[in-house]
Amino acid sequence: MLAQLLWVIFPYACIATFIIGHIFRFRYDQFSWTAKSSEFIEKKQLMWGSILFHLGIIPVILGHVAGLGIPASWLRAIGVSDHMYHIGAVYIGSIFGIVTLIGMILLTARRITNESVRKLSSLSDILVNILLLFIVFIGCYSTIVTNFTMPHFDYRQTISEWFRGLLILRPQVAYMADVPLQFKLHVITGFLIFALWPFTRLVHVWSVPVNYVGRSHILYRKHK
Question: Distance between CA 135 and CA 158 in Å, rounded?
Fold first, then answer.
């Protein structure tokens, strides 16, 4: 029952909350669809933390998509051997993971230690920062430490198989039975952040100002 709860019920509940929560918030609470910027309070730490976090998180997400969503046999078919993938996932992935972690540490420390920023922050803001920090940390730990201490473990034969089964509505909990604890924590907290996403400042991710590129120029005239 615990395995079914953790690896079937909980993930689907998080996915459903992610989708329904976004629809509900966009329809009934659009005015809160904002990142609530605190740049006017403190800029330097925000700038470095934001740059490092976003510079690292995009390759990390792409790496997760490739590792979880694309079967190893497909990658081999296009010439990406297991050794090449391992080099990219462990070494290159670790570099971007550490960059993301440093950025998240700066952003979290700023939100907690800067009194003015902390007063402006809601409980959900602080919770999201701490949760993201934990997810990135446990992900880096799993990639760097576990891959060296447990070289026999291959998440593409366990977690990836379970995840793809989840997507096609055929989850097989047996794949998660022997997965190391740190990987399990990374997966569970990853789904948890998706469940919290619609109710926090993370919704600003979808508000990319694409229309700025093609919009008309704004004219400013000086009043005499």
Answer: 19
Q: Could you tell me the two tokens for 41?
A: 């309070």
Closest to 184 in 3D by CA, of 6, 61, 46, 63: 6
What DSSP string runs through 122-140?
-HHHHHHHHHHHHHHHHHH
CATH of the domain spanning 37-194: 1.20.950.20
In total, the chain counts a number of residues equal to 224
CA distances (Å), origin 212, targets 87, 215, 221: 39, 5, 21
Where in the chain are the domains? 37-194
CA 216 from centroid of its chain's CA atoms: 34
Residue owning tokens 């604890």: 181
- Tens-digit pLDDT profile for the chain (224 aa)? 899 999 999 999 999 999 999 999 988 887 777 666 677 778 889 899 999 999 999 999 999 999 999 999 999 999 999 999 989 998 999 999 999 999 999 999 999 999 988 888 889 999 999 999 999 999 999 999 988 889 889 999 999 999 999 999 999 999 999 999 999 999 999 999 999 999 998 988 887 665 555 666 666 566 65
Nearest of 224, 223, 146, 134 to residue 187 by alpha carbon: 134
* Cα dihedral 106, 109, 111, 115 in deg (nearest 10): -130
